[in-house]
Every structure is written in C-alpha cells, then in structure tokens.
Here is the input.
Amino acid sequence: MIRKLAFALALSMVPAAAMAEGTMPQMDFQNPLTKSQVEWMAVILVVLYLVLSRWGLPQIGNVLENRERHIASDLEAAHAAKAEADRAVAELNATMKQARDKAQADIAKAEAESKAKAFADAKVLNDKLDAQLAYSENQISEARNAALAAIKPVAADVAATLMVRLTGKAPSEATLTPEIDAALLARKAA
Amino acid sequence: MAGPSIDALGQFRLSPGLGPLGAAVNFTNSNEAMLASAAIIVVLFVLGLRSRAIVPGRLQALIELLYEFVRNMCVDTIGEEGLRFFPLVFTLFSFILLGNLLGLFPYFFAFTSHIAVTLSLALFVFVFSTGVGFYTHGFRFFKFFVPEGVPVWLLPLLVPIEIISYLSRPVSLSVRLFANMTAGHVMWEVFAGFMLLLTASFGVLGAFASVVPLGLNVALVALELLVAGLQAYVFAILTCLYLHDAVHMH
Here is the structure.
C-alpha cells in the first residue's frame, strides 16, 4: 500500500519533470513543423483577411447601414404622420371652436330677438289694456254722473213731500235746491 | 510496474496534417485547427448573411454582435482612424478567439498554445504598428520615445527605458496568450491523468477518489472558456492600443 502511494506521488511529479527537461514541443525549434505551421498560418490568415475585408465585413456593414436607414426613414415617416395628425387635430379644434362660437352667437341673437319681440308684444297689449281701462273708467264715471243727475229731481220731490208732511207747507224751490246740491256733493265726495 | 503516466505536453506535439499531401508541404495538425477556425468564421458569415434581414435571426445577430463589438473596440481605442484597421483587428480577434475556443474541445489542437504562433502574430502586430507610426509621422515618430514634460537630464535614462518597453511589447503580447493557453491545457491533462493514476493505484477506491480531479476539471472548463475569450480580447485591444500609439503618438 505504501509502495503504491509513493508510486502515485512520484508519477504526479511527472508533468513538472517533463517541463523541466525542456521537452516542450512548443520550444522545439529544430522541428521543421514549428516553422512550417507559422508559414501556413500566414497563408490562412491572408486568405481569411481578404475574405473578411473584401466580402464579409462590408456585407455586414451594408446590412447594418440598411437597417439604420430603414429605421431612420420609418422614424421620419412617423414624425411626418404625427405632424400631419397634429395639424388635423388643430384644424378640427379650430373648426369646432368656430362652430361653437357661431352657434353661441346665433343663440344670443335669437334670444335677443325673441326678447325684443316679446317686449313689443307686451307693450302693445298693455297699451290696448290701458286704453280699454281708460274707456271703461270713463264709462263708469259717465254712468255715475248720469245716475247722480237723475237722483237730483227725485231728492227734491222727496224733500218737498217730507217738508209738506212735516210742516204742512210747501218749501220754495229756491231754498230747497242749494241744500240738496250741497248734500249731494257731500255724498259724492264721500 | 508500468502504470499509466501523464503526458501533459503530448497534446502540443506537432505532427503532419491533411494526410500525405499535407505532409509533403509540411502542413501540420496545428494548421488543421487554424483552417477549421478560419472556415468556421467564413461559414458563420455565409450563414449569417443568408437572409440579410432587418430583424436579424440568431446567426445574423451573432456576426452583427461580433462586428459591432470589434468595430466599437477599434473606434473607441484608436479613434475614427481606427476604422482603417478594423478588418485587420477583426481577422486577428476572430482567428484567435476561434483558435482558443476550438482548442478547448478534445482532439482539437490549440494552436494559440504555441509560442511560435503567438510570437509571429505579436511580431506582425509590432512591425505593422511601428510601420503605421513611421508612415503616419515619418521620422518624427522617434519622438514617441521622448516623454514630454520631463527634465532634459533625465532623458538619457528615460529614452532607453521607453525603447526597451516598446521593444518588449511583442514579447509580453505573445507570452501572455501562449502561457495562458498552455497552462490551462496542461492543467486539464494533469488532472485527467490524476484520475487514471488514482484508479490504477487504488482500484475502486481510487476510481471514487478521482471524482475530485474530475470536479476540478469541470470547474477548469468554465475558467478556460473565460480565458479563451478574455485572451483573444486582450490581444485585440492591445493591438488597437499599439495602433493608437502609432497613429496618435501619445
């Protein structure tokens, strides 16, 4: 067991020993393959460089540029569409404002017109009523005067009859008439 | 007593690739992985570019993401002039990233764990960025090694330090990638080897005990995934930084 362990330990030192012996294939510059691999690398790299620089990279550049341009033009179109939409909205707002203003003006005008008409109508009606009222009052006072005038002879008669009954003597018309007029005036005033 | 032994470095051994034809031109198994990486990148582009949709599908979104990621890295680090170097940085980044990621799979060769590969890439970046510096500024680029606002008597000390730090760029750039990838792969191999050793040494008990290195390896997979992405990113961003220095000189 111990021998085996020692053996394993010894073998684990092998890589270090191999390095120390200077047998790294990388350092073996006597090997013609060490030099030829570099020569072939130069060939491969030159071909790779030509393929990439003449074809591959410009193509990718084109693809990226196309995308850039595509995005830029799309953005531009979007901006233009937005500006168009903004303008349309502004136009719409202006039209709506104009319509609203006009409607309000129409409403105000109609209101004023109808107010004026109603006022005029009322005035006409009032005048008519006033006229009728004046006429009626006139009629009433006329009727009243007529009635008062008609009452005067009756009062004179009644007063004369009363005087005859009370005194047995007919009063003179000259004394009776002013008295009756004064009484009638007092009543009228009352 | 011939038990299993750990050959942690065998995975880095180069061998001829692509059959006898490849062997004839010294094509290696490392180059096979490079070819696979490059092919995967190209295939991703072909598939991702199939529809070219305004609203991308998954693959298209993936390559667009990669494209914009590296592009932003270039522009943010180097500035607008960085777009000239974007294809180069993209090639390096995607190649290293795919190499790192492919290397994580069993039987795939991690070519970024070869110092010859990473040093070549780093030297290329170094020479290229220096060339860009001289191309952009002419001989005035030497002023890059003369820090501004420093007393004149300090310059004999500072200029050599600046030059040495500049010259050490390719070393740090290459060793960082190489060491990270190599260390991760060696650890994997060592822990996996432990499992074989434990089982061979202690039988059933060892087989149960090997759950520990297995768990460690599972955790290492997560770490190595992170390292694979991170090191590719670090290589690319440092390339951008060096190019920034070459273009702007400060």
About this structure: Chain B touches chain A through 60 residues (CB under 8 Å). Chain B has one domain: 10-248. Chain B is about 70% helix and 0% strand. Residues 24 and 197 of chain B are 39 Å apart (CA to CA).
